[in-house]
Design brief:
- The structure is a homodimer.
- By secondary structure, chain A is an alpha/beta fold.
- Chain A folds into two domains: 105 residues, RuBisCO large subunit, N-terminal domain (Alpha-Beta Plaits, 2-Layer Sandwich), CATH 3.30.70.150; 255 residues, TIM Barrel.
- Chain A has 15 helices and 13 strands.
- In chain A, the strands form three sheets. The first copy, chain A, has a five-stranded mixed beta sheet with strand order 2-3-1-4-10. In chain A, strands 7-6-5-13 form a four-stranded parallel beta sheet, with helices on one face. A four-stranded parallel beta sheet of chain A has the order 8-9-11-12.
- In chain A, α6 runs parallel beside α7 and α12 runs parallel beside α13.
- The longest helix of chain A is centred in the middle third of the chain and has 19 residues.
- At the A-B interface, α2, α3, α9, α10 and α11 of A face α2, α3, α9, α10 and α11 of B.
């Protein structure tokens, strides 16, 4: 037995995690209890006194179990805010750390996050409104494209960036596979591309922003981010799967850096695509991206090279917009094989509170990139 | 068309990723081609000249497609080493970044990694042999336990650490849920637990090592690691899912820090448990943990609270031991609900090249922790 009996000085504030659990009724009760233990004390509850605060408050508490379908249940579990240590890594640890290893448990959403917890997270620095303001586009859907393909020289990519900017893109991001390769070293590329976009902006009067991909090693990541800022980059493309969710959060929180973040889904798809495990599209690409400071959430739209359904895409958009107190809403940014002829359809689907991401398709056809971009912009303006 | 034609100065060295792909024959050919593009240029190949090095060398190359079972194929794809930028985040990006978002593709293993790539990774600083040396146990399986439950005061945890050390444990780790919570702040806990273990070591002559859990925010993580070292901690428990694989790698690579790393599976289980997606147990808990610097790979053994099968556990053990040039072998560390009565069985299964992790079960029974630990140690010595 744990001795003496622990009396903790807890606030009493709790937050909810809504899980979808697969199984029969008896099984679900056991799984629910298991989540409560596994995500907190990982210890036999019977070895803790009945009047111990660890047993009564630290262990998760089943708030509700509701049947959604045959063998599918919505299980709501509350946790004391203190178990999160008020940090993102430990919040992730509590909501899905060890149970990520158990099948048939999926996070549907985080819910009822009290201000006493949320207040420790700043979320996106700019959010949708901030991104709109910096490119002077208060209402229409924003336009994003990507520098590619990997293997092009920094000079070649900068020329591409120049043409994209001339064509009226709002954001030009590096392809997420552009890192610090010998054919286009990070600092060389960032300097040339930022200059190219600045030159185009001077010619056009647009406020296009160049967004380098930042996937640097831990030791140089912050320095590289500052280098990008010094070059007048307009943001950072960050994949939390590659550098860590909390690393992205730290980049967003850095007041001196102060750059917007486009969140990229590289390496985190596995959390979403298995229907009975991981995190829902809503929680992962919406809520978690926002808590981790992304100002836009890039994801592969339905109907492109990837397999997301319309419902899944809409739930991502919902997750980017849902009320989370002071945590700003962000722009859902569907990409992954989008084409110009789908602009109207996608606009009808997502509405104007989004950012289009069209990459490779702008290179198609006999005309140049500038003309392709003009077509893209006009299609969005007329959608 | 991409113009002019790119002539890159590549080494010609390539490495292989072996994927398991689900689907019919025609589908698999398409998926294989898709991986080659998606993980590199993300660009229509037909817009690149036939004699361009991007088309001929940067795009992944299908080396082999072999049928494993009905609708299951082993697809081997090679990538130019240069596309990795010789960093861990970009290596992860290339092997599984975007295709993590596509169903029915699973990494079976990394293969044929040339020294020109591997040489950029130091891997585990100590590895199995190093861990054995630091606790003076050259041959028998090592003994690890965990401080728990969450909610206990630092003083209570330190008392527990003292008793575990007196009982002859080799490594005493924080439970991975111990972070920087108000009931046991990180620095207070680390100081007290490290002192407690040191005191016990002076009394016993053992070389027990205290291993605090490090899941600090990005801004303080390295400082907290150094604080742990200054307190004479004997290692760090790091969950790459919580802080990032490359953050763990940076902790392992830091020469001034020089602490061994126990790698924890929190939040990365989702990669392994869906049989057709993600990464194999071998690749994730073996190869990737080693590339990211873990000296031991903790995983939930078959027959405990989790669902891993015997085969899956054995493939993890294989992944920790397989030849990877200078990348050291590490200790598979099965835990997750292990009990004393299973020591002989587990020892027969894994062999002595492993570390036992038994936590909660040591608290069972009428006797104290020291006696439980003695029983644990004797069981392993006699196994």
């Amino acid at each position: 037995m744990i001795d003496p009996v622990n009396k903790l000085n807890l606030s009493g504030d709790r937050f909810d995690v809504v899980y979808h659990v697969k199984g029969g009724r008896v099984e679900v009760d056991l799984i629910a209890q298991d989540i409560c233990i596994e995500q907190t004390i990982e210890f036999p509850a019977d070895l803790i006194s009945a009047d111990d605060d660890i047993r009564n408050h630290i262990i998760g508490q089943v708030k509700d179990i509701k049947q959604l379908a045959s063998e599918v249940w919505e299980v709501t579990i509350s946790f004391a805010i203190e178990v999160t240590g008020f940090t993102l890594p430990q919040l992730i640890n509590v909501i899905f750390g060890n149970i990520s290893i158990k099948p048939n448990i999926r996070i549907a959403k985080l819910d009822n996050l009290p201000q006493s917890l949320l207040g420790h997270f700043r979320g996106p620095r700019f959010g949708s409104a901030g991104l709109r303001k910096m490119v002077d586009q208060p209402t229409r859907a924003l336009l994003c494209t990507a520098l590619k393909p990997m293997g092009l020289s920094s000079k070649g990519l900068a020329q591409q960036a120049y043409e994209f900017a001339k064509g009226g893109m709002d954001f030009i991001k590096d392809d997420h596979g552009l890192a610090n390769q010998p054919f286009s070293p990070f600092r060389e590329r960032v300097e040339l591309c930022a200059q190219a976009v600045e030159r185009a902006n001077q010619e056009t009067g647009y406020k296009c922003r160049y967004v380098p991909s930042l996937s640097s090693p831990f030791e140089t990541l912050m320095d590289d981010a500052y280098f990008a800022k010094e070059c007048n980059s307009g943001g950072l493309l960050v994949a939390p799967g590659l550098v860590g969710f909390d690393t992205m959060r730290a980049l967003a929180d850095d007041d001196d850096l102060g750059l917007p973040i486009l969140g990229h889904p590289s390496f985190i798809g596995s959390y979403a695509i298995s229907p009975n495990d991981g995190l829902s599209f809503y929680a992962l690409f919406g809520q978690l991206m926002r808590l981790a400071g992304a100002d836009a959430s890039i994801f592969p739209s339905y109907g492109g090279r990837f397999s997301f359904s319309k419902d899944e895409c809409m739930s991502i958009a919902d997750g980017t917009q849902a009320d989370m107190s002071h945590i700003k809403t962000i722009l859902p940014t569907p990409g992954g094989g989008m084409t110009l002829d789908r602009v109207t359809e996608l606009h009808d689907f997502y509405g104007s509170e989004m950012m289009f991401l069209i990459g490779g398709a702008l290179h198609r056809g006999d005309h140049g990139l500038i003309e392709s971009c003009n077509g893209f912009r006009e299609a969005v303006e007329n959608a």
